[in-house]
Amino acid sequence: MRLCTYERHGKIGVGVEAGGEVHATTYTDMLDLIRDGEAGLERARAAANGPAVTVDRMLAPLLRPGKTFGSGVNYKAHGEEEGTHAVLPVEPRIDFIKLPNTVIGPGEPIVIPTADRVIIRPDGYQVDYEVEFGVVIGKRAKNVSQADALDYVFGYTVFNDVSARGVQFGPGKWLQADLGKNFDTFCPMGPVIVTRDEIPDLARAHITATVNGEPRQDAYLSQQIFPIPVVIEWISSIITLEPGDCLMTGTPAGIGTFRDPPLFLKPGDVVTVAEDTIGELTNPVVAG
Question: Is the pTM higher than 0.90?
Fold first, then answer.
Protein backbone atom coordinates (compact mmCIF):
# COMPACT_ATOMS: atom_id res chain seq x y z
CA MET A 1 0.00 0.00 0.00
CA ARG A 2 0.87 3.63 -0.52
CA LEU A 3 -0.03 5.61 2.59
CA CYS A 4 -0.23 9.39 2.64
CA THR A 5 -1.16 12.31 4.86
CA TYR A 6 -3.25 15.08 3.34
CA GLU A 7 -5.20 18.23 4.13
CA ARG A 8 -8.84 18.54 3.11
CA HIS A 9 -11.13 21.41 4.07
CA GLY A 10 -8.70 22.48 6.76
CA LYS A 11 -8.52 19.04 8.36
CA ILE A 12 -5.73 16.47 8.27
CA GLY A 13 -6.35 12.88 7.27
CA VAL A 14 -4.43 9.71 6.49
CA GLY A 15 -5.23 8.02 3.22
CA VAL A 16 -4.38 5.20 0.87
CA GLU A 17 -3.16 6.36 -2.53
CA ALA A 18 -4.12 4.09 -5.41
CA GLY A 19 -4.36 4.78 -9.11
CA GLY A 20 -3.74 8.47 -8.57
CA GLU A 21 -6.64 8.75 -6.13
CA VAL A 22 -6.73 9.06 -2.35
CA HIS A 23 -9.04 6.95 -0.21
CA ALA A 24 -9.60 8.26 3.32
CA THR A 25 -8.94 6.09 6.34
CA THR A 26 -10.37 6.76 9.79
CA TYR A 27 -6.94 7.95 10.98
CA THR A 28 -5.86 11.56 11.33
CA ASP A 29 -2.24 10.78 12.28
CA MET A 30 -0.02 8.28 10.49
CA LEU A 31 1.72 7.52 13.76
CA ASP A 32 -1.51 6.12 15.19
CA LEU A 33 -1.88 3.81 12.19
CA ILE A 34 1.70 2.59 12.61
CA ARG A 35 1.26 1.97 16.32
CA ASP A 36 -1.87 -0.10 15.63
CA GLY A 37 0.27 -2.58 13.71
CA GLU A 38 -1.55 -5.17 11.64
CA ALA A 39 -4.93 -3.86 12.78
CA GLY A 40 -4.02 -0.46 11.36
CA LEU A 41 -2.99 -1.97 8.06
CA GLU A 42 -6.25 -3.92 7.88
CA ARG A 43 -8.23 -0.72 8.39
CA ALA A 44 -6.20 0.94 5.64
CA ARG A 45 -6.79 -1.97 3.25
CA ALA A 46 -10.51 -1.74 3.89
CA ALA A 47 -10.45 2.01 3.24
CA ALA A 48 -8.76 1.44 -0.12
CA ASN A 49 -11.98 -0.20 -1.33
CA GLY A 50 -14.03 2.87 -0.40
CA PRO A 51 -14.73 6.01 -2.42
CA ALA A 52 -11.94 8.41 -3.32
CA VAL A 53 -11.78 11.91 -1.80
CA THR A 54 -10.45 15.15 -3.19
CA VAL A 55 -7.56 16.65 -1.23
CA ASP A 56 -6.36 20.22 -1.02
CA ARG A 57 -2.71 19.30 -0.61
CA MET A 58 -0.43 16.44 0.30
CA LEU A 59 1.61 16.71 3.48
CA ALA A 60 4.64 14.86 4.83
CA PRO A 61 3.39 11.32 5.54
CA LEU A 62 4.66 11.60 9.13
CA LEU A 63 4.07 15.14 10.33
CA ARG A 64 6.14 14.66 13.48
CA PRO A 65 8.30 11.54 13.23
CA GLY A 66 9.89 10.14 16.34
CA LYS A 67 13.67 9.87 16.37
CA THR A 68 15.14 10.29 12.88
CA PHE A 69 18.70 9.03 12.56
CA GLY A 70 21.04 10.07 9.76
CA SER A 71 23.81 7.94 8.34
CA GLY A 72 27.06 9.55 7.30
CA VAL A 73 29.05 7.81 4.59
CA ASN A 74 27.12 4.72 3.45
CA TYR A 75 28.02 4.78 -0.26
CA LYS A 76 31.63 4.27 -1.30
CA ALA A 77 31.40 6.85 -4.09
CA HIS A 78 30.14 9.48 -1.64
CA GLY A 79 33.07 8.80 0.66
CA GLU A 80 35.49 9.01 -2.23
CA GLU A 81 34.09 12.29 -3.59
CA GLU A 82 35.15 13.95 -0.36
CA GLY A 83 38.74 13.59 -1.54
CA THR A 84 41.99 12.13 -0.32
CA HIS A 85 41.12 12.64 3.36
CA ALA A 86 38.00 10.49 3.21
CA VAL A 87 38.01 7.36 5.34
CA LEU A 88 35.43 4.70 4.52
CA PRO A 89 33.68 3.40 7.64
CA VAL A 90 34.31 -0.07 9.03
CA GLU A 91 31.03 -0.02 10.97
CA PRO A 92 27.75 1.86 10.39
CA ARG A 93 28.00 5.60 10.99
CA ILE A 94 25.07 7.32 12.64
CA ASP A 95 26.34 10.86 12.55
CA PHE A 96 23.33 13.06 13.23
CA ILE A 97 19.63 13.28 13.99
CA LYS A 98 16.80 15.23 12.39
CA LEU A 99 14.28 16.93 14.66
CA PRO A 100 10.54 17.26 13.93
CA ASN A 101 10.77 21.02 13.23
CA THR A 102 12.64 20.23 10.01
CA VAL A 103 9.93 18.10 8.37
CA ILE A 104 8.02 19.40 5.36
CA GLY A 105 6.01 17.64 2.67
CA PRO A 106 5.62 17.72 -1.12
CA GLY A 107 5.59 21.17 -2.62
CA GLU A 108 6.49 22.98 0.58
CA PRO A 109 9.44 25.37 0.28
CA ILE A 110 12.94 24.73 1.53
CA VAL A 111 13.81 28.02 3.21
CA ILE A 112 17.37 29.30 3.01
CA PRO A 113 17.98 31.05 6.36
CA THR A 114 18.44 34.80 6.39
CA ALA A 115 21.64 36.39 7.63
CA ASP A 116 21.82 36.06 11.39
CA ARG A 117 23.42 38.20 14.07
CA VAL A 118 24.38 35.06 16.04
CA ILE A 119 25.43 32.43 13.50
CA ILE A 120 27.61 34.62 11.32
CA ARG A 121 28.65 33.08 8.00
CA PRO A 122 30.25 35.60 5.60
CA ASP A 123 30.10 33.00 2.80
CA GLY A 124 26.46 32.18 3.50
CA TYR A 125 24.86 29.05 4.87
CA GLN A 126 25.81 26.99 1.77
CA VAL A 127 22.58 25.00 1.66
CA ASP A 128 22.89 21.59 0.01
CA TYR A 129 20.65 18.65 -0.96
CA GLU A 130 21.00 14.91 -0.28
CA VAL A 131 18.59 12.21 -1.46
CA GLU A 132 18.18 9.46 1.14
CA PHE A 133 16.19 6.24 1.20
CA GLY A 134 14.09 6.30 4.36
CA VAL A 135 13.03 3.48 6.67
CA VAL A 136 10.02 3.84 8.98
CA ILE A 137 10.09 1.61 12.06
CA GLY A 138 6.86 -0.26 12.79
CA LYS A 139 7.37 -1.74 16.24
CA ARG A 140 9.61 -1.48 19.25
CA ALA A 141 13.09 -2.77 18.42
CA LYS A 142 15.93 -3.45 20.86
CA ASN A 143 18.97 -5.67 20.19
CA VAL A 144 17.51 -6.80 16.87
CA SER A 145 19.52 -9.19 14.71
CA GLN A 146 20.20 -8.60 11.03
CA ALA A 147 18.18 -11.69 10.20
CA ASP A 148 15.08 -10.30 11.93
CA ALA A 149 15.62 -6.59 11.25
CA LEU A 150 13.09 -6.14 8.43
CA ASP A 151 10.34 -7.64 10.60
CA TYR A 152 10.49 -4.37 12.57
CA VAL A 153 10.06 -2.16 9.49
CA PHE A 154 6.68 -0.61 8.73
CA GLY A 155 7.60 0.85 5.37
CA TYR A 156 9.79 3.09 3.28
CA THR A 157 9.83 6.72 2.18
CA VAL A 158 12.19 9.28 0.63
CA PHE A 159 14.02 12.05 2.46
CA ASN A 160 15.90 15.11 1.28
CA ASP A 161 18.57 15.64 3.92
CA VAL A 162 18.97 19.38 3.37
CA SER A 163 22.13 20.66 5.04
CA ALA A 164 23.73 24.03 5.72
CA ARG A 165 27.37 23.21 5.03
CA GLY A 166 28.48 26.58 6.36
CA VAL A 167 27.26 25.48 9.79
CA GLN A 168 27.83 21.73 9.50
CA PHE A 169 31.52 22.09 8.67
CA GLY A 170 31.78 25.22 10.82
CA PRO A 171 34.79 27.47 11.41
CA GLY A 172 38.05 25.67 11.97
CA LYS A 173 37.81 21.91 12.39
CA TRP A 174 34.56 21.76 14.36
CA LEU A 175 31.87 19.52 12.88
CA GLN A 176 28.33 20.54 13.82
CA ALA A 177 26.26 18.11 11.75
CA ASP A 178 23.24 18.21 14.04
CA LEU A 179 22.96 22.01 13.93
CA GLY A 180 23.72 22.29 10.22
CA LYS A 181 20.98 19.80 9.37
CA ASN A 182 18.22 21.04 11.67
CA PHE A 183 17.13 24.42 10.38
CA ASP A 184 13.38 24.65 9.87
CA THR A 185 12.26 23.03 6.54
CA PHE A 186 15.50 21.04 6.18
CA CYS A 187 13.84 17.61 6.00
CA PRO A 188 11.44 17.17 3.07
CA MET A 189 9.77 13.75 3.41
CA GLY A 190 7.42 11.79 1.17
CA PRO A 191 5.53 11.81 -1.02
CA VAL A 192 4.15 8.67 0.67
CA ILE A 193 5.15 5.76 2.85
CA VAL A 194 5.01 2.46 1.00
CA THR A 195 4.52 -0.64 3.11
CA ARG A 196 7.39 -3.07 3.29
CA ASP A 197 5.90 -5.51 0.77
CA GLU A 198 5.99 -2.85 -1.98
CA ILE A 199 9.82 -3.13 -2.17
CA PRO A 200 10.60 -6.81 -1.55
CA ASP A 201 14.18 -6.52 -2.86
CA LEU A 202 15.84 -3.52 -1.26
CA ALA A 203 19.01 -3.94 -3.31
CA ARG A 204 17.02 -2.97 -6.41
CA ALA A 205 15.61 0.23 -4.90
CA HIS A 206 16.77 3.16 -7.04
CA ILE A 207 17.17 6.72 -5.69
CA THR A 208 17.83 9.92 -7.63
CA ALA A 209 18.09 13.67 -7.10
CA THR A 210 17.71 16.48 -9.61
CA VAL A 211 18.04 20.25 -9.27
CA ASN A 212 16.10 22.29 -11.85
CA GLY A 213 15.76 19.08 -13.86
CA GLU A 214 19.52 18.45 -13.94
CA PRO A 215 20.50 14.97 -12.68
CA ARG A 216 22.75 15.23 -9.62
CA GLN A 217 22.54 11.88 -7.78
CA ASP A 218 21.71 8.35 -8.96
CA ALA A 219 22.28 5.09 -7.08
CA TYR A 220 20.87 1.69 -6.15
CA LEU A 221 20.70 0.49 -2.58
CA SER A 222 22.90 -2.44 -3.64
CA GLN A 223 25.73 0.12 -3.58
CA GLN A 224 25.33 0.80 0.14
CA ILE A 225 28.29 -0.15 2.30
CA PHE A 226 25.98 -1.26 5.13
CA PRO A 227 22.57 -2.63 4.07
CA ILE A 228 19.51 -1.63 6.04
CA PRO A 229 19.37 -4.77 8.24
CA VAL A 230 22.95 -4.08 9.37
CA VAL A 231 22.07 -0.47 10.24
CA ILE A 232 18.99 -1.54 12.22
CA GLU A 233 21.01 -4.12 14.14
CA TRP A 234 23.66 -1.49 14.93
CA ILE A 235 21.32 1.26 16.11
CA SER A 236 19.05 -1.05 18.09
CA SER A 237 22.04 -2.39 20.00
CA ILE A 238 22.45 1.11 21.45
CA ILE A 239 19.08 2.87 21.26
CA THR A 240 15.59 1.41 21.49
CA LEU A 241 13.66 2.15 18.31
CA GLU A 242 9.96 2.92 18.57
CA PRO A 243 7.08 2.95 16.05
CA GLY A 244 7.39 6.04 13.89
CA ASP A 245 11.15 6.38 14.29
CA CYS A 246 12.95 6.80 10.97
CA LEU A 247 16.33 5.95 9.48
CA MET A 248 17.93 7.97 6.71
CA THR A 249 20.28 5.45 5.16
CA GLY A 250 22.93 7.60 3.53
CA THR A 251 23.33 9.63 0.37
CA PRO A 252 25.22 8.67 -2.81
CA ALA A 253 27.79 10.77 -4.65
CA GLY A 254 26.77 13.99 -6.31
CA ILE A 255 26.02 16.48 -3.53
CA GLY A 256 26.66 20.14 -4.22
CA THR A 257 29.44 20.80 -1.73
CA PHE A 258 31.91 18.41 -3.38
CA ARG A 259 31.40 19.65 -6.94
CA ASP A 260 33.99 21.85 -8.59
CA PRO A 261 32.96 24.57 -8.16
CA PRO A 262 30.44 23.81 -5.38
CA LEU A 263 26.80 24.08 -6.40
CA PHE A 264 24.68 25.17 -3.44
CA LEU A 265 20.95 25.72 -3.53
CA LYS A 266 19.62 29.22 -4.18
CA PRO A 267 16.18 30.84 -4.22
CA GLY A 268 14.29 29.82 -7.33
CA ASP A 269 15.78 26.33 -7.52
CA VAL A 270 13.54 23.27 -7.54
CA VAL A 271 14.81 20.03 -6.00
CA THR A 272 13.32 16.61 -6.72
CA VAL A 273 14.38 13.48 -4.85
CA ALA A 274 12.84 10.17 -5.78
CA GLU A 275 12.76 6.40 -5.56
CA ASP A 276 11.25 4.38 -8.39
CA THR A 277 8.51 2.72 -6.32
CA ILE A 278 7.86 5.46 -3.76
CA GLY A 279 7.74 8.30 -6.30
CA GLU A 280 8.97 11.88 -6.55
CA LEU A 281 9.26 14.47 -3.79
CA THR A 282 9.63 17.99 -5.19
CA ASN A 283 10.29 21.18 -3.21
CA PRO A 284 11.03 24.74 -4.34
CA VAL A 285 13.80 26.75 -2.69
CA VAL A 286 13.02 30.20 -1.33
CA ALA A 287 14.83 32.90 0.61
CA GLY A 288 14.00 33.32 4.26
Answer: yes
